């Protein structure tokens, strides 16, 4: 199942201030009281529907973002992974163009690293009048997703160049073509 949500936010004078498009793909199973769903990041239909917003498309159309922020979401106490699932979020912030794109992939772990693959992800796009917002904190104040960038989690995000071997230029060069490359960051950098 693929789902798209559109949110609109208005100014005090009833003009649209911000539009958010979020999307994702789930696999449903079971029936009635035993019905459940699982997040799917590599769904072919979802990828075809959202191709215009894919990482390589955004990078090829808009170039290098002003900022790239990442957050491998930590385990909740009492719910370690696996079996619990936690995302790895990538935020491309184009402040001068008035938009950001968040790619949320599955967070994996290997040899002391968190690993996220932004090309196998769910997508959230937010657009606004570039004269309206001065900071990314103002942009995400309306975001309400639990696992993703929002007013509560923005403080936990870090610039990609501070926690990986990639800076925005290297990220652009790596992901502007279709690739299955992933990003890794040392787990020790994310410990409280």
* Fraction in helix: 10-25%
Beta-strand fraction estimate? 35-45%
Secondary-structure element order, N to C: EEEHHEEEEHEHHE
DSSP helical segment count: 5
Tally of individual domains: 1
**Which structural class best describes the helix and strand composition?**
alpha+beta
Radius of gyration: 17 Å
pLDDT averaged over residues: 89
Shape: globular
The description of the largest β-sheet is: 9 strands, antiparallel
Descriptive key words:
nine-stranded antiparallel beta sheet, 192 residues, 9 strands, alpha+beta
Note down, in words, how this protein is organized.
It is a single chain. The protein has 192 residues and is α+β, with helices and mostly antiparallel strands. The chain has one domain. It contains five helices and nine strands. Strands 1, 2, 3, 4, 5, 6, 7, 8 and 9 form a nine-stranded antiparallel β-sheet that branches. Strand 1 and strand 2 form a beta hairpin. The longest helix has 8 residues, at 55-62. The model has no long low-confidence stretch (mean pLDDT 89).
């Amino acid at each position: 199942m693929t789902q798209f949500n559109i949110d609109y936010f208005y100014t005090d004078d009833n003009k649209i201030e911000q539009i958010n498009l979020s999307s994702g793909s789930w696999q449903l199973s079971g029936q009635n009281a035993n019905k459940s769903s699982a997040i799917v990041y590599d769904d072919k239909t979802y990828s075809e529907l959202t191709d215009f917003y894919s990482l390589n498309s955004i990078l090829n159309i808009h170039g290098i973002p002003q900022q790239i922020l990442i957050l491998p979401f930590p385990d909740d106490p009492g719910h370690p992974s696996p079996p619990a699932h936690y995302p790895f979020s990538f935020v491309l912030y184009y402040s001068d163009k008035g938009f950001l794109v968040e790619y949320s992939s599955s967070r994996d772990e290997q040899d002391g690293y968190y690993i996220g693959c932004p090309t196998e992800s769910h997508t959230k796009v937010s657009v606004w009048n570039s004269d309206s917002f001065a900071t990314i904190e103002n942009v995400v104040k309306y975001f309400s997703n639990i696992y993703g960038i929002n007013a509560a989690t923005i403080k936990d995000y870090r610039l990609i160049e501070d926690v990986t071997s990639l800076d925005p230029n290297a990220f652009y060069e790596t992901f502007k073509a279709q690739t299955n490359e992933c990003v890794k960051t040392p787990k020790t950098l994310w410990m409280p």
